[in-house]
């Protein structure tokens, strides 16, 4: 501040001294007021060299003083404005959106899985599945009136919104208070809910068979993630949902009522929920020699009890019977398989054990046009040399869906 005052006095002194001075050139006198040239004592074609040099010196001197004064002012202001300046350069919290990665994304995905909105894995990568789950949560919370108005979006997103609104036709335009469109971006209140503690109510209402709606869908999604429910996420509380819930209650030490009460939901929608004991292999195969049928069962509620496929077959003839018993199958043997002993081919050969296979109907050559129609006609009756023949479609299904180690019971 002292330097500033001194400089001001210097400037004033210079201004006063520069207001009027004389230049002597060849006995001619000319007076200059400030920086503005006036008429010379004698007319000439322009200011002489001495006057131009003096003006330049005065200008440069003033410029130096003003620059110095400016620097002094800046240095004096910085300490005063320091705290405000720091606040201004601190960036706002970054929203989480499609393309984001990291621990926060992983935490969000875990919450979405626990709360019944997300069936994907918590891999820390914000992709399209995560975005859909976030949008579903946004819509859910908006319906409940629990998603407060977010802060203004960044300028770029606002411009995009304006462009999109301009592209709408008059028939599509609706009052924004009546239409809510989730954007799949996690920021503001939504970020607090997903990353905070106790911000989301796990229990909303008790549910039982016959119930419908968003809460049922959320219940089904969570049961699916924990592998108690194999599918059918439709928002309708039916027998499959009830059975899946009963098995969840059994595995988690709760009373098996099939009703989604407060105690059940508080555990189901938490990180402490025990996953189903679903086995490594999704299917168990049974073969009825008497009925000439193959049955594929999926695991459900603690056992292979859900019949998912019934297939007509041909087992071995009486002189070349198919062995009975329970076997852990060896797996794929080839999309095309040649039986050298009988000089014929089959598709989708899957080894049971030893020489015994599941395979398609018979071909004369490794060519689909050489199908032996008699092997198709014989499906449903014993006709093989010990293998189990199936239609091409059924043989392909078993070949592609049953991993090596899948068990088969032949009886």
In words, what does this structure look like?
With 411 residues, the chain is of the alpha+beta class. Among the domains are: 2-88; 214-268, no CATH class; 283-410, L,D-transpeptidase catalytic domain-like. It has eleven helices and twelve strands. Helix 1 (2-18) runs antiparallel to helix 2 (49-89).
Q: In a nutshell, what does this entry contain?
A:
This protein is of the alpha+beta class. The protein has helices spanning 2-18, 49-89, 103-114, 128-144, 155-167, 188-195, 214-225, 239-251, 262-268, 373-377, 392-401, and strands at residues 21-25, 28-32, 283-288, 293-300, 303-314, 325-328, 331-339, 344-353, 356-360, 362-363, 388-390, 407-410.
Q: How big a fraction of the residues is strand?
A: 15-25%
Query: What structural category arises from helix and sheet content?
Result: alpha+beta
- CATH fold group of the domain at 283-410: L,D-transpeptidase catalytic domain-like
- Second-tier CATH architecture of the domain at 283-410: Beta Barrel
Strands, total number: 12
> What is the CATH first-level class name of the domain at 283-410?
Mainly Beta
Mean pLDDT: 83
Order of helices and strands: HEEHHHHHHHHEEEEEEEEHEHE
Radius of gyration: 42 Å
Distance between the termini: 103 Å
Shape annotation: elongated
Please report the number of helical segments: 11
Helix content percent band = 25-40%
- The parts where pLDDT drops under 50 for at least 5 residues are 19-45, 150-156
**CATH-assigned homologous superfamily of the domain at 283-410:** L,D-transpeptidase catalytic domain-like
């Amino acid at each position: 501040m002292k330097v500033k005052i001194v400089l001001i006095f210097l400037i004033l002194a210079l201004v006063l001294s520069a207001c009027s001075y004389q230049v002597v050139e060849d006995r001619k006198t000319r007076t200059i007021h400030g920086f503005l040239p006036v008429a010379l004592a004698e007319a000439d074609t322009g200011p002489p060299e001495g006057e131009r040099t003096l003006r330049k010196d005065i200008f440069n001197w003033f410029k130096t003083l003003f620059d110095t004064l400016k620097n002094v002012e800046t240095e004096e202001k910085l300490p005063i404005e320091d705290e405000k300046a720091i606040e201004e350069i601190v960036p706002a919290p970054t929203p989480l959106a499609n393309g984001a990665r990291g621990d926060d994304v992983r935490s969000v995905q875990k919450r979405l899985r626990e709360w019944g909105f997300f069936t994907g894995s918590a891999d820390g990568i914000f992709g399209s599945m995560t975005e859909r789950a976030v949008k579903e949560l946004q819509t859910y919370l908006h319906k409940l009136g629990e998603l407060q108005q977010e802060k203004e979006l960044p300028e770029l997103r606002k411009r995009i919104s304006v462009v999109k609104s301009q592209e709408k036709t008059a028939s599509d335009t609706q009052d924004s208070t009546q239409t809510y469109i989730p954007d799949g971006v996690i920021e503001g209140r939504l970020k607090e809910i997903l990353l905070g503690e106790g911000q989301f109510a796990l229990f909303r209402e008790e549910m039982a068979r016959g119930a419908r709606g968003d809460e049922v869908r959320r219940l089904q999604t969570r049961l699916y993630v924990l592998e108690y429910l194999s599918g059918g996420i439709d928002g309708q509380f039916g027998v499959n949902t009830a059975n899946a819930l009963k098995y969840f209650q059994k595995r988690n030490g709760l009373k098996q009522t099939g009703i989604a009460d407060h105690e059940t939901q508080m555990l189901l929608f938490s990180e402490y929920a025990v996953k189903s004991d679903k086995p490594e292999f999704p299917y168990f195969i049974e073969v009825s020699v008497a009925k000439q049928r193959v049955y594929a069962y999926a695991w459900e509620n603690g056992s292979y009890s859900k019949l998912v496929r019934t297939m007509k077959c041909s087992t071995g003839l009486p002189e070349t019977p198919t062995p009975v018993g329970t076997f852990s199958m060896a797996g794929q043997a080839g999309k095309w398989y040649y039986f050298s002993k009988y000089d014929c081919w089959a598709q989708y050969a899957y080894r049971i054990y030893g020489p015994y296979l599941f395979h398609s109907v018979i071909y004369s050559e490794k060519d689909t046009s050489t199908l032996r129609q008699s092997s198709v006609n014989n499906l449903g009756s014993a006709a093989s040399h010990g293998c189990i023949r199936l239609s091409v479609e059924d043989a392909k299904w078993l070949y592609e869906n049953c991993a090596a180690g899948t068990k088969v019971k032949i009886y």
